Amino acid sequence: METNENSLKDYLAVLRRRKGLMIITFFSLLVISIIAAFLWPPTYRSTATILIRDQEIPRDLVPSTITSFADQRLMEIQARVVTSANLIKLIEDFDLYPDLRRRLPATEVVDEMRDDYSLDLVSADVIDPRTGRPTQATILFTLSFDYETPAIAQQVANRLVDLYLAENLRDRTERAQETTSFLTEQAEKLAREIGTLEERMSRFKQQNAGALPELYSINLQMMDRTEAELREIQRQIRVNNEALIYLQSELATTPKAAPIYSREGTVLPPDQQLSALQSQYATLSASYGPNHPDVASIRRQIEALKGEVGEVTDIGALETQMQTVLVELEGYRDRYGPEHPDVRRLDRQYERLTAERDAALEAQVAGSDSGGGSVDSGNSVSNPSYVALSARLAAAQAEQRALQIRQQQLADKMANYETRLVAAPEVEREFSEIIRDLDNARAKYQEIRSKQLAAEVSESLEQGRKGERFEVVDPAMLPTLPHTPNRLALLFLGLVLSMAGSIGTTAVSESMDSSVHSPNALAKLTGIAPIATIPMIENEIDVRQKRRRMWMIIGGVSAAVLITALLVNFLYKPLDVLWFILLRKLGI
Prior knowledge:
The structure is a single chain. The protein is of the alpha+beta class. The protein folds into three domains: 8-38 and 495-586, no CATH class; 44-187 and 449-474, Bacterial polysaccharide co-polymerase-like; 217-441, no CATH class. The chain contains 16 helices and six strands. It has helices at residues 8-39, 70-81, 84-94, 98-103, 106-116, 150-207, 216-252, 270-288, 293-309, 315-336, 341-370, 384-463, 487-512, 519-526, 540-572, 575-586, and strands at 44-53, 117-127, 134-147, 260-262, 265-267, 469-474. The chain has a four-stranded antiparallel beta sheet. A two-stranded antiparallel sheet has the order 4-5. A hairpin with a 2-residue loop joins strand 4 (260-262) and strand 5. Helix 1 (8-39) runs antiparallel to helix 13, helix 1 packs parallel to helix 15 (540-572) and helix 2 (70-81) packs across helix 6. The model is unreliable at 261-265 and 368-379 (pLDDT under 50).
């Protein structure tokens, strides 16, 4: 048997049968949605707009020590502002969420306040001055706070703005101060290092006063000059030594006593007579023997003269030998060094002659004090030539001693200059190392000092609020309209849900009804098509019931409209105001 699908006529028949249920369901849901929309407690939002202004002075003139981006700093400031301690203080100051505070712990109340607080960034396309590339930069941001009381929402929003402004100023000032403090600490550290290096250099110069690199050429010149002077002194010593030898030889051949003249001729002085007799005695003793009368006679004369003049020690001859040995010693020492055997031999010979000369001088002094008659005594010298030669010899000896002293001084000076020149390379290496360290420290100090001065200027810039700062361009105002809920959207949603609910209720009611309402339904049920259809005949009772339902529907719709108007008038906006707004939008 052929089955027929439901046609539009069937659906319209369902609507006619269930229109009462649909209307009641629709208006019931609509009234509920209207009541819910207007009884939902309003929440007011107060919003402040803060502009991020760039620093007033060009960055080329006064660079800032704050290098992070504004959005990054805003996130850091937000993390420090919306802490639990700050939010709890705000909740206590403004007595926020009294119901929640009685029912929930403080942490959940703080979370609720964080949900009601919002920070929105506004960015723009700019050119980054550090890289020259296009980028997005935050130029302003908004702070909002939602609360059920408009005045409290405004006050809390303004307090949050104050906290952001104060935290931004404190953060920038602290960063500038930390930068300045760090650079100051580094500058002081480098200053101490420079002082240590300068003290080290001063000690080094004192320890190596004559071997510094800048004195190398001067030391070399002074060494050459000292060497030339030493050669001249050595030449003078040689010349003076020759003069000493000559004077000593002249003095040795000059008698101390003046010759005595008699009628027979010149008489020799006693010392010369003693020398002559000693020579004659040696000759006769060799020829005749010690017992010969002439030898015995000469011996008696010699003993008599010895008793008159005493033993004679020729001090002049000793000094002549000493000068000769000394000249030879200096030559060997310069040529072979102090450890050569000949140098050591001449040293011992010079020491022996010096000891003999000193012993002779002591004996001469002792003889003079005892009144003995010595040939070297000043009272026995009567020859003017001998006296003159002795004076010249003493002067030459004094000059020789002065030249020797000067020679030793020049030799020590030469050795000192040689030591300086030998030590000069090592001294120059250490000196260059100290100079390099000192120059590096001074360069770092100057660099740090320039950065420190720039940081101090940047700190003054931040303290004077001339740098980048937050400026409130639109303070938080007292909200007049609720931010939530959106009553029009809720009404529209309630209308949609009312229509869907009424249709759904009708569909469910129809699906649960097993009665037959049309020929097609009967044909489907029995499998046999009906022969004829008898229409419904309404009586007076049906008419009255239909009218009663109509008036009930009209009364329900009117009550819903009236309730809606009252709710709009008292909870949203007065009806006369809405009327004038509608007329203005329509241009009437």
